[in-house]
Design the sequence.
């Protein structure tokens, strides 16, 4: 909350300074013009406030263009400056927001850790990064069988996964008004209000539990270290 208050105080100060400078400019022009017209003119002595207001009113009527230019120009200039400062401070994140907490957990940790496990158990990254266009179907099938076995084992040991719908694909279902749009995606001729009647195309998956090993404190972006055999 301190940042918006500080920004508001700064903008108010800039605008106030512009207004004061505009008044000072207008008053200075008034004194200059009045002195040229009446060399004996003076605002000192008694009745200073009345003389000042009377002189300002007279100069505004006699030289309206110059008077308003000297008064308004500084106000507009400083208002524009305040606008630029406000936009710049709003677009620039604070150091606290831009710098992640050194002691806080890396939000990428669970996803990268799971990816590292799938690489370790099933060589998933090796397979996905490999150009397989030059391999035959039998070679790809044999590799996929090994990868499937390792990744399935890794997930089974660390995740509890269940179907959103237990029915076989192709089964007829009725979706009532209480359905969760995040869990059920409706396709086809969808119109009107539920309940909807349709055919199950995919049962969906839901993660009911996840147990990942304790983070070691290393760089979480290293999902598979390079291996070097020393001769």
Sequence:
């Amino acid at each position: 909350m301190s940042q918006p208050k500080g920004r508001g105080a700064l903008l108010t100060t800039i605008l106030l300074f512009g207004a004061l400078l505009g008044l000072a400019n207008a008053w200075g022009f008034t004194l200059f013009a009045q002195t040229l017209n009446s060399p004996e003119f003076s605002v000192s002595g008694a009745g200073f406030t009345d003389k000042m207001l009377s002189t300002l009113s007279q100069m505004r009527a006699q030289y309206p263009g110059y008077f308003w230019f000297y008064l308004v120009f500084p106000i507009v200039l400083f208002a524009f400056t305040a606008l630029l400062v406000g936009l710049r401070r709003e677009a620039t994140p604070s150091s606290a927001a831009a710098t992640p907490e050194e002691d806080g957990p890396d939000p990428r940790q669970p996803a990268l850790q799971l990816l590292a496990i799938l690489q370790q158990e099933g060589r998933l990254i090796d397979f996905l990064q490999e150009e397989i266009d030059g391999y035959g179907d039998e070679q790809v099938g044999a590799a996929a069988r090994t990868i499937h076995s390792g990744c399935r084992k890794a997930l089974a040991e660390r995740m509890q996964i269940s179907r959103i719908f237990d029915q076989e694909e192709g089964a007829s279902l009725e979706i009532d008004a209480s359905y969760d749009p995040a869990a059920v995606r409706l396709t086809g001729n969808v119109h009107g209000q539920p309940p909807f009647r349709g055919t199950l195309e995919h049962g969906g998956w839901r993660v009911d539990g996840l147990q990942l090993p304790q983070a070691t404190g290393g760089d979480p972006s290293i999902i598979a270290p390079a291996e070097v055999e020393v001769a």
Q: What stands out?
A: Confidence is low (pLDDT under 50) at residues 95-101. The two ends are 61 Å apart (CA to CA). The chain is about 55% helix and 10% strand. Residues 177 and 210 are 30 Å apart (CA to CA).
